[in-house]
Amino acid sequence: MLILNSGRFHRRLAGSRTGMTLVELLTVIAVISILIGILIPTVSTVRTSARKAKAKILLNQWAAGIETFRQEYGFYPAFDFNTTDQLINSTEDTAEFVKALAGRNVDGSKIEDSNDLASGNRKRITFYTFSEGEISEAEELVDVFKKTPIAVLMDLNYDGIIRVETGTDDDYAAFPFIDRGTDPPLRWPTDPSTGKVTGLRAGVAIYSPGPGGPANIITTW
User: Do you find a cis peptide bond into 77, omega within 30 degrees of 0?
Assistant: First the structure.
């Protein structure tokens, strides 16, 4: 008669199941790879969305600074770039923008030359304080994605509406391009009864390239 040592038998049986087979190991690796493939794009999308939201807040802070300027002086800053292409796309444009809103030079020093107050901030009031990340190493204004140029539109006739390409009392003939002429047509709200573009009910409108590409333009509205 064959007598089995039950204790030894169970130990051997248990020991044979402590390791994973090759098939099981490959299955686990495959599942992990699939999960990583799903999670990485999702995390990236969430981060981009968060930065877009932050970029929108920044543009609105700049716009609020311009509005505060108007409340103080009774008029909007007389930006030279706003009479040409409405774009902040150079160190000169950036310096003009910073001096108007911060009341100081780009490097934070005091404005000594009265000619540097052409935008109208003669009292050198600080309407907005720029952080280091908003000015590039090339001393150009950038958005959260470190992109430039920045488009700035204002209600030039002070009627409460910024009109662009509406065909009636336009403040600007066209929307300035910020992505080398590839921008999609930006449009203001339309009148539901007529379908015509009515303009944006705001004093200041700003937009920037964002993460890149026409579909990712960041706007204040």
Answer: no
Q: Are 106 and 170 in contact (CB under 8 A)?
A: no
Q: How far apart are the first and last CA of the chain?
A: 91
Give Cα 119 distance to the centre of its chain: 25
Top pLDDT among 7 and 145 is at 145
Residue 132 maps to a domain = yes
Residue 112, φ and ψ in degrees, nearest 5: -95, -40
Does 35 reside within a domain? no
Residues 107-130 pLDDT 10s:
999 998 888 888 999 999 999 999
DSSP code, position 197: B
Structural domain for 138, as ranges: 46-219
67 within domain boundaries: yes
CB 143 within 8 A of CB 88: no
Q: Report the domain count for the chain.
A: 1
Instruction: Indicate the pLDDT class of residue 177, thresholds 50, 70 and 90.
Output: confident
State phi, psi for 28 to the nearest 5 degrees.
-60, -45
The angle subtended at Cα 114 by Cα 149 and Cα 116, nearest 5°, is 10
Structure token digits, residue 50: 């968060």
Q: Determine, yes or no, domain membership for 10.
A: no
Distance CA 151, CA 133 (A): 18
Count of beta carbons in the 10 Å neighbourhood of residue 131: 7
Q: Which residue has the tokens 């080398």?
A: 180
In this structure, what token pair is assigned to residue 202? 């705001």
Angle between helices 91-102 and 22-73 (to 10 degrees): 60
Q: Is the pTM of this model over 0.70?
A: yes
